[in-house]
Amino acid sequence: MQETPEISTAKGRLGVLLPGMGAVATTTIAGVLLARKGLAKPIGSLSQMNTIRLGQRTEKRSPLIKDFIGLAELDQIVFGGWDPIPDNAYESAVNAGVLSNEHLELVKNELMEIKPMSAAFDTEYVTRLDGPNKKTGSNKRDIAEQIRADIRDFKEKNKCDRLVMVWCGSTEIFLRHGSVHETMESFEKGMEDNEQSISPSMLYAYAALKEGVPYANGAPNLSADFGAFEDYAQAEGIPIAGKDFKTGQTLMKTILAPGFKARMLGINGWFSTNILGNRDGAVLDDPASFKTKEESKLGVIDHILQPNLYPDLYGDIYHKVRINYYPPRGDDKEGWDNIDIFGWLDYPMQIKVDFLCKDSILAAPIVLDLAIFLDLAGRAGLGGIQEWLSFYFKSPQCAPGLYPEHDLFIQNWKLKNTLRWLGGEDQITHLGREYY
């Protein structure tokens, strides 16, 4: 077994940088501010509220994760970010309409002081959103260098000891890997040549990596999941993770599908539709951006059910995903699923799920956990893809040649076993009597 790494202490300030200061980012920021004042609870956050079993069950050792291993605490976190819309975090949160005025007023002064830096933004990649707070430069590399300068300035101004970056921006158009993404040298040349296959989110990822900042991608677009960045992150010992926060409908799929498979129940069809009215809904109303999200959502079922191993049960599933922009709904997304299953002797049954959720309420604890766990990974010297954080993503990054794990329960087991290993405890395998 690999030797447990030495972890540097989580002293000082942790800067959490968020490209995209819309509903998800401001809900996260406001929630952390409220929680550290004792005015609300960070529900949904494993790092803050979940326990971890250690050793034999008879030992009855199940501390909170945050008490078991040295994590950055909420009062150590300083937030910053970028957005093409110049509204401060309070104005943006009010406009998003996720949190109540009662909650926002309690942290209004702190939120008003968080103003977005000018963004690397291009309507070629997000067509349904725009704003005046944008960077300009001679080429894409110039803009990336401006982001690097922002990172350094933020760290110095806020006296941060460490930084992490979590992409909370909108879904960009669908892009495929190309030769420009193969090496850091080809990518840098591509930035200088303003290659169309280099999107703004890649500029943020590049800037983060070059500044030694752990990076996670919360959207489904190509961002840091290609050879140039993965190799660089591994070589330089910088944690990366992604992609696409696992929130509403896909969260339900990764809960339900493993259950069907565990019971060997067959599936003929899975129809999923969503209505959403916030910035994300507007962006995904563009077919090019929806294509990126569709690819992320469609892959989940196949990877969990393994139709190549179970052709009789899952070899002919009709899986359809739809997202519809519906402004009156705001951030209150509705995900509706119709699942046609079959059981003993091929007899048909149906399951219908109607999940009326608040997308940003589900995403906020993910942002917090990723920031805290990426910081832990960085202090432990764990470079490259952090597959143990797959729990938080629709399209988890994994090493070349492997398929991503989508089963929520296996992902949770991997996450906790990694924490046990980092904390110098035995991993739970249930293979010996001592673990029963």
| Rg result | 21 Å
Assess the beta-strand content as a share of residues: 15-25%
Sheet with the most strands, sense and barrel status: 6 strands, parallel
> Structural class, from helix and strand content?
alpha/beta
How are the strands ordered across the major sheet?
2-1-3-4-5-10
CATH architecture of the largest domain: 3-Layer(aba) Sandwich
Given as residue ranges, the uncertain stretches (5+ residues, pLDDT < 50) are none
The quaternary organization reads as single chain
Order of helices and strands: EHHHEHHHHEHHEHEHEHHHEEEHEH
Distance between the termini: 22 Å
Under the CATH scheme, which class of the largest domain? Answer: Alpha Beta
Whole-number count of domains: 2
Residues in helices, as a percent range: 25-40%
List the helices and strands and how they pair.
Blueprint: E1 14-19, H1 23-36, H2 46-49, H3 65-68, E2 77-82, H4 89-96, H5 101-106, H6 108-112, H7 140-157, E3 162-167, H8 184-192, H9 200-210, E4 215-217, H10 227-236, E5 239-242, H11 249-262, E6 266-276, H12 279-284, H13 287-305, H14 311-314, E7 318-325, E8 332-342, E9 348-358, H15 359-379, E10 384-385, H16 408-422
Parallel strand pairs: 1-2, 1-3, 3-4, 4-5, 5-10, 6-7
Antiparallel strand pairs: 6-8, 8-9
